[in-house]
């Protein structure tokens, strides 16, 4: 095999670095995807303060399944597969379970995250109904460290 020249090596490193910087710059530059919530009873337009999909709820299993899919479509890019953060965004497994975690979660999902005019997380509630939002939360509680 022919050794790579220094010039070609530098070009390769530059291309690789440019690709990585694009990934970092793209953080938050995501178009949220629609979530199919068929099988979940509509919760209405007034946002609930607590996740209704907890163990014992008749739609809990459906919510967890929908939430896992919705998380992978909309959240995993920044928060990591299986909610294991790679350091770019908060590790969502660290959220408190129950109403304590619901409060922070709902605030962030509804308000997003903007620093110095840059969107780090879009206002996901602008793109998803509360059934989808709470279904994601139900799934997150299945992988949380407090579970």
From TrEMBL:
Domain Cytochrome c: 62-144
InterPro entries in alphabetical order: c550_proteobact, Cyt_c-like_dom, Cyt_c-like_dom_sf, Cytochrome_c550/c551-like
Domain of life: Bacteria
Signal peptide: 1-26
Record GO terms (molecular function): electron transfer activity; heme binding; metal ion binding
UniProtKB keywords: Electron transport, Heme, Iron, Metal-binding, Signal, Transport
Cited Gene3D superfamilies: Cytochrome c-like domain
NCBIfam families: c550_PedF
Protein name per Swiss-Prot or TrEMBL: Cytochrome c-550 PedF
Organism: Nitrincola tapanii
């Amino acid at each position: 095999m022919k050794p790579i020249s220094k010039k070609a090596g530098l070009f390769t490193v530059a291309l690789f670095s440019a690709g990585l910087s694009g990934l970092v710059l793209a953080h938050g530059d995501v178009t949220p995807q629609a979530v199919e919530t068929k099988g979940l009873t509509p919760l209405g337009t007034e946002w609930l303060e607590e996740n209704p999909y907890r163990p014992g709820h008749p739609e809990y299993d459906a919510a967890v399944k929908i939430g896992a899919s919705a998380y992978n479509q909309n959240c995993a890019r920044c928060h990591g597969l299986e909610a294991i953060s790679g350091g770019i965004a908060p590790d969502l497994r660290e959220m408190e379970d129950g109403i304590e975690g619901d409060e922070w979660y709902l605030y962030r999902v509804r308000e997003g995250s903007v620093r110095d005019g840059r969107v780090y997380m879009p206002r996901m509630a602008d793109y998803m109904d509360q059934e989808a939002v709470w279904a994601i939360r139900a799934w997150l509680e299945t992988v949380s460290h407090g579970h």
